[in-house]
Each structure stands twice: as C-alpha cells, then as structure tokens.
Design a protein that fits this description.
The chain is built from six helices and 16 strands. By secondary structure, it is an alpha+beta fold. Strands 9, 10, 11, 12, 13, 14, 15 and 16 form an eight-stranded antiparallel sheet that branches. The longest helix has 21 residues, at 20-40.
Length: 300
C-alpha cells in the first residue's frame, strides 16, 4: 500500500528531478492517472438510500455521484430495478399525462436528478442508488506527529498532542471521502494499515475495523491518504504518470517505453486479479465438480 506521499516521492525520484516544481507537477499527474484507472477499475463504488415521497417524481442524486450502476426501489418484499431511458424526447413522450403507481417501470437521469415513471403513488418506499463516486484529489501529505495509544479489540486511536481534526476536517465527522489509513509502526505497533472511519477530535479517531495488534501506548504511527485502487497495484499510477512525463513534458522515448512496459505489466496483473472479487488461495489446478447423483451409493 502506497500513500499519496509515497507515490509522489517515487515518481519524482524515478524522473531524476526532485525539484519543488516537479513535485507539484507529479502530484497533478498522479491525480490524473488515478482518475483514469478508476474509469476502468471500478473500486469507487457507493450505495445511498432515500425514501419515496407521494406524488414526487424526481429525487436528488448523491452529492458525489458520477455514474449510476443501478437504481433499485424496494416496495415491501419486492426489489425492482426499472429500465433506463436515455433521451429527453423519450422521457417527455412517456410523461404526456401524469401517471401514478408504486412499482416503477422506467427511470431517467437529468439535471442531477433521478426521475421515476410512473410517479410514486405512496410514500415510504426505499430507493437505493448503487453508483460510482467522483474521485476526490489526493492532496494530503503523510502525517506523523508525536505518538498514539492503540488498544487491542478497540476501534479508537488516541493521540498525544496530535492535531487529527485540525489537519483533516473543519469539524468532527466522517473521513470516508478522504480514504485515510493509519499504521501503528513496529516495534510497538503491529505495522498493519487500518482505514480511518471518522475523526472525533485532535486527539481521537475511529477505525473502520478494531485494532488487532497488542495494546500499546507511546507508539509511532503514520497516517496516509491512499488511492482507491487495489493496494497491491498502487505503483501503476506512478508508472502511468512517468509515461506522460517522458512523452509530453520531457522528450525521452527510451524512458517512456521503459515505464510504459512496466505499467502494462502491472495492468495485466491487475486485469487478472479483478476478474473476480474473491480469491482462491489454492493455486493448484482446480478439479471439476462431479454430480453425486451420477454415482450409485452403497448402503453399509
């Protein structure tokens, strides 16, 4: 797993130009590459639910909405996915007269609104948006000030004269949109990365999962802002940025080809990995399943 600071540092070192100007440039190139990869590798998925209002046809999409995967409505035990309408003309033709019903057949996205047809006749049915979020820029440098206390089995991390809230948020709340992770470093910590769910104050934050290491105090740590790509492939962003750098900013064809080859190698591995969202840890060739009904059973 590589934080924004790690990625920026690696890119500038490989470019052999670590000037402040080049650091700023690579920060921008890294963000551009991050967004491009997320167009293909769909790791920025979210779900938001709202409820229908009687006689109301349009509903605001989430603030960070980029592209809808599915929009489903739940009516009692029925979960229904309406069909998308793609043109304004078709939608207007459908809505010549108002028509009300609880089970929708179509939806139309227009002006950042999710529109339903027929119009819901009653209130209280659930609309779930499964969607791709807009990708926020990676902007935060690694943070590591003084020490922290971590308790085994607890999601709470306590800092000593730290400035968690001041550094990341205007007020206490979720940091899900920032994708911040913390590692309590060895030898006192377990050296694993944990995603941060929220920051309560300058000296207290909450993890998504409980801390699994041994209880420790006075431990060194680092908080990093992470890309949304799979952690084993974060460096593909660096190599993509370097290809752009050596083709459009510094004319060096051999360097561009060197980093392009490395980028394509990692992309190939990532393509193979993300073909499924589960992993078979048995690397031997899988056996074909056999239908037990084809074989007679002997009763002893």
């Amino acid at each position: 797993m590589k934080s924004f600071t790690n990625l920026s540092s690696l890119a500038t070192k490989l470019s052999t130009n670590t000037s402040a100007t080049n650091v700023t440039l690579f920060n921008e190139l890294i963000n551009d590459s991050h967004r491009r990869f997320l167009e293909k590798y769909f790791f920025n998925e979210k779900t938001k639910t709202i409820v229908t209002v009687s006689k109301q046809q349009e509903y605001a999409l989430p603030y960070n909405y980029s592209k809808l995967k599915t929009g489903t409505l739940t009516i009692g035990v029925l979960k229904w996915t309406p069909t998308e309408i793609l043109t304004r003309r078709e939608w207007d033709t459908l809505n010549v007269f108002p028509y009300y019903a609880d089970i929708p057949s179509h939806y139309f996205i227009y002006n950042n609104k999710f529109n339903i047809w027929p119009i819901p006749s009653t209130a209280g049915n659930t609309i779930s948006f499964n969607y791709k979020i807009r990708v926020p820029d990676l902007t935060f440098a690694d943070y590591s000030v003084v020490t922290v206390t971590a308790t085994h089995g607890s999601p709470t991390i306590l800092g000593a004269t730290t400035a968690f809230l001041t550094t990341y948020l205007p007020s206490a709340g979720s940091v899900e949109h920032l994708n911040l992770w913390i590692r309590v470093t060895a030898p006192k910590g377990d050296n694993n990365w944990y995603q941060i769910s929220s920051i309560e104050s300058d000296t207290s934050l909450t993890l998504v999962n409980d801390y699994d290491g041994a209880t420790t105090s006075g431990a060194s740590y680092v908080i990093g802002q992470m890309p949304l790509l799979l952690e084993d492939y974060h460096d593909v962003i660096v190599f993509d940025a370097l290809v752009t750098y050596f083709t459009t900013i510094v004319d060096n064809k051999s360097k561009a080809e060197e980093f392009r080859a490395r980028r394509e190698e990692i992309k190939k591995m990532m393509d193979e990995y993300v073909g499924t969202k589960s992993l078979n840890v048995n690397l031997a060739r899988p056996r074909m399943a056999q239908n037990p009904n084809l074989f007679p059973q002997t009763i002893g």
